[in-house]
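[#protein-structures] MJ: dropping 3',5'-cyclic-AMP phosphodiesterase here for a structure pass
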Amino acid sequence: LFTDTTLSGEIGTKKKVKRLLSFQRYFHASRLLRGIVPQASLYLLDEDYLGQARHMLSKVGMWDFDIFLFDRLTNGNSLVTLLCHLFNVHGLIHHFQLDMVTLHRFLVMVQEDYHSQNPYHNAVHAADVTQAMHCYLREPKLANFLTPSDVMLGLLAAAAHDVDHPGVNQPFLIKTKHHLASLYQNVSVLENHHWRSTIGMLRESRLLAHLPKEVTQDIEQQLGSLILATDINRQNEFLIRLKSHLDNQDLRLEDAQDRHFMLQIALKCADICNPCRLWDLSKQWSERVCEEFYRQGDLEQKFELEISPLCNQQKDTIPSIQIGFMTYIVEPLFERWAQFTGDTPLSENMLNHLRRNKAKWRSLLHKQHSSSRSNDHSGQVTGSQEQTLNEEETP
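AK: finished. structure tokens for 3',5'-cyclic-AMP phosphodiesterase:
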């Protein structure tokens, strides 16, 4: 988004930052009305990579699922392929009498509305969150009470929770006075945009047009509630409420309201589960999200704005960012999730990965500090030698 714009000419004022942040929803809006139909195969998988991708889909409920490999096998269509498969596996196509062509069209719209140039907030991240959500929906404590509507909402919210993400955070939108910040009054700006964009695509595709109006309205509102829950600024709000429920043992999953709350928690877990993955996968996600932070920092520096926390590549290292994220955000949430699920194999596996990954980041941070001290010492010696030489050359 930024690269393509800046290549066309140097931008010299802060005011023009807002133009860089013009979201690309307009490009996709009303494509059906314009007669532009996505030219994508309606088959779940092409013959060339059918075997490997299908084999991976047979293990889609495994926590070691490699979404990067799956995205390559599906030629960059991991989100569409995964959702089509999961809707079929969970019986949602039959239960809601969904048209397969319309479903595919809607999912292509969602996938295309993610910005592939974002290192982190792209369609592969959405597919990764969706796969994690599928795993959580299968946890016995939750699965035994879920309705088809709950499952569809959980999967749709996971797939669309970051749609049309610009690659910068809410504080950036606020301080550059972006129109979305004004529209949503600086509250859950991105999450509100993700939700509204999703509703727009649902209506445009007419995926749920055959359902009663009150049903579709309820689905739209619940989607909003789920997506808005991913706002990291609301983390403590949800943690306090979850802790209260667990301590009081008053969760009644027969109650639709309590089930919805746990779907919110599940989506929050899925959204930040990267530190709980295998090290190789977790490390890739960590590098991607930090690269996105650093790009924002570079943009802020370019336009003489205050550099946001975690966005200064010279000061904020990947290990330090990840250790802080794990300690203050991830661990408290996943420890409560494990308390809810009852220490299932999946929860124990995630917490074990989390601890091991945190230890590896600590080790890398220690090496960075050791290397930094060594360089500083080396610099001091060189400086001393230079001073000596200068003194020798002085008459």
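MJ: nice. The CA atoms of residues 244 and 250 lie 9 Å apart.
AK: one more thing. The longest helix spans residues 345-393.
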